[in-house]
């Protein structure tokens, strides 16, 4: 049976990447060592982590005045590290667009000395839209404005990055990094857990404009952006194998034609599914059309029992991890870069068949 | 050329583990998914992390009143998390045995509200011995006594765990976990970066007695032992693939006969090298004989130029990562569980040949 993995993360990885990793797992390029066995200070590994950074710089067109860090702890640790490094004694502005934004807000409020203000929210409509942000809403003395560019659970995304004046935008880009046409220059700091569009879980990418690096040390060197930047992510042993897989993913993406090409493919895949939803009498998208995510696409029938039946039958057909998050219900298809178009086509065909069999409601 | 990897970490892994990981990298047990692609909330992955914990419990005979956590950030993040969780408003006692103990002490001092006291140190002799710890030295109101059971750089180890009364012992066991005959009951908390005796870098094992779990929340959920324990290490996405490799290593170790059997092998390997050093007129061990580590074995000629020559010739023969840490100089052989005895025999033979060729000094 062909398996299509719609997981929201950890998620499907490119097959050629997995096959390359498999081929060289025991013996990396004739070294007689696995990448997992290499000292992070060896010249062989140094080339891997440097290549990973360089490839990401190319793919995202990251300017020279930004540092690229490979850290640990996921977006969840960034929720605390960012206010701790950037906003103690200052105001930090947050946009509340869903489950992940809420976690970022809650963590920032728990950092002593940070004055957290939620400047906009779509909680009034269960996070089904992106609230409008205008420059007038922004206190220009704030340390930053935090946004979640794509809400993995709610399935909404910023289509453009708002103009907030000179205040740096800090963005949780975990679920649509390398699947957008944003400009890095429009952000002060971008962070992303790897386990959606980059690689295995256990590595977190942070892209930070150099002038935002803290001057005062943070109590823990591991939580200190300036320390991590000064050590090129090698303050301690980084998650070496996860970074190696990320490098292979970046190579795959570059070979494919880069971010513009994958974005075109991602949009095509998403359109296929949204068209099927819009044409259906049974399925509907719970989110505002203009704010639809292309990477995480929730859909519902409006009938919990029918959703459950769909999910059970889908699973039996090899559609894995389609069940929606409990806060939204229904189904959710995560269509990250490595998710094949054939999988969307198969899902759409299955949805049509299901609708025929289960009639109009 | 046969390569022997003496790296201090990330380090050599068991060949059967790498081969098994390779065989199932693209398709784990017929799931048509890589372990890297699995949702951490899927039943398939749940079995992997539960098995990893259960195997470690068996191998170390961990009592039921201890939690086993798989975290991120390495020992370096634990250096901050431990005082933050256990010692704010209290005294924390530290034993200074070398480079890693010093880092732990420095990080604890930077945590606000922790009264750090170094109760013993071997810095007077460049950390070549383990200082004696007696119960009389221990303030019984202290939150804990921190020791580094094995100093990866200095090459000294606690042969027995000191009696400190009712104060919990907190131990950095990164470089000799699963290579000792300590009793878990003698510790309040044990922590270890995985990249020596457990698996790839990027996962940190914490074994904590339940009564030591903090009651007051820590500002960051990711840094909060109680939160991590309440969520069985799944508060956020854990480093799933690294935990899977750790599980394979634990299976390998269990099949081999468990910790007692590997300890016997480790002692044999170390003895082979120490015997060669002791019999040599050229090489010597810089550390106190009674405190010798069996996992990290530094040795020197006393002549920097000769050390350099040895390292160059050794590297050319396939002995990788033998160069000693700059703070000790000379050579260092890290002989973790997965390091093969043949590698020690080959090194000893090479040392004899080198000594013959380079004469008595």
Automatic annotation (TrEMBL), chains A, B:
Report the catalytic activity.
Answer: 4-(phosphooxy)-L-threonine + 2-oxoglutarate = (R)-3-hydroxy-2-oxo-4-phosphooxybutanoate + L-glutamate; O-phospho-L-serine + 2-oxoglutarate = 3-phosphooxypyruvate + L-glutamate
Catalytic activity, EC: 2.6.1.52
Task: Point out residues bearing the modification N6-(pyridoxal phosphate)lysine.
Answer: 196
Q: Where in the cell is it found?
A: Cytoplasm
Q: Which residues make up the binding site for L-glutamate?
A: 41
Give the top-level enzyme category.
Answer: transferase
Q: Name one Pfam family in it.
A: Aminotran_5
- SUPFAM superfamilies referenced in this protein's UniProt entry, alphabetically: PLP-dependent transferases
Q: What does the UniProt cofactor note say?
A: Binds 1 pyridoxal phosphate per subunit.
- Binding of pyridoxal 5'-phosphate occurs at 75-76, 100, 152, 172, 195, 236-237
Write out the entry's keywords from A to Z: Amino-acid biosynthesis, Aminotransferase, Cytoplasm, Pyridoxal phosphate, Serine biosynthesis, Transferase
According to its UniProt record, which cofactors does this protein need?
pyridoxal 5'-phosphate
Question: Pathway, according to UniProt?
Answer: Amino-acid biosynthesis; L-serine biosynthesis; L-serine from 3-phospho-D-glycerate: step 2/3
Major localization class: cytoplasm
Segments forming domain Aminotransferase class V? 3-347
**Which InterPro entries does its entry note?**
Aminotrans_V_dom, Aminotrans_V_PyrdxlP_BS, Pser_aminoTfrase, PyrdxlP-dep_Trfase, PyrdxlP-dep_Trfase_major, PyrdxlP-dep_Trfase_small
> What does this gene product do?
Catalyzes the reversible conversion of 3-phosphohydroxypyruvate to phosphoserine and of 3-hydroxy-2-oxo-4-phosphonooxybutanoate to phosphohydroxythreonine.
Family (UniProt): Belongs to the class-V pyridoxal-phosphate-dependent aminotransferase family. SerC subfamily.
Subunit info here reads: Homodimer.
Name of the protein in question: Phosphoserine aminotransferase
Instruction: Give the classification, highest ranks.
Output: Bacteria, Bacillati, Bacillota, Bacilli, Lactobacillales
